[in-house]
Task: inverse folding
């Protein structure tokens, strides 16, 4: 199976980890974390001076329950690199 830059971004946990150095929901057992995510819970906004409103909006889009509504990897790249 190949990878494509056109697929939806699976950046939900990575985007949070980059700024918090913590895996989202890591204080819960995996099954509890999965149930929380399926119920719509999301990690809080990281309290980091470089975590801009633009990054917060992007992270929330990455956490969208519907993969078709998540941003494409190319869009994530552009936001993260300032392109």
Result:
């Amino acid at each position: 199976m190949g990878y494509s830059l056109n697929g939806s971004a699976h950046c939900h946990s990575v985007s949070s980890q980059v700024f918090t150095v913590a895996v989202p929901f890591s204080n819960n057992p995996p099954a509890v974390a999965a149930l929380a995510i399926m119920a719509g819970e999301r990690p809080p906004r990281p309290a980091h001076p470089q975590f801009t409103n633009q990054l917060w909006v992007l992270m929330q889009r990455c956490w969208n329950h519907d993969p078709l509504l998540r941003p494409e990897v190319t869009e994530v790249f552009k936001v993260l690199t300032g392109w």
The two ends are 29 Å apart (CA to CA). Residues 3 and 79 are 20 Å apart (CA to CA). The longest helix spans residues 53-62.
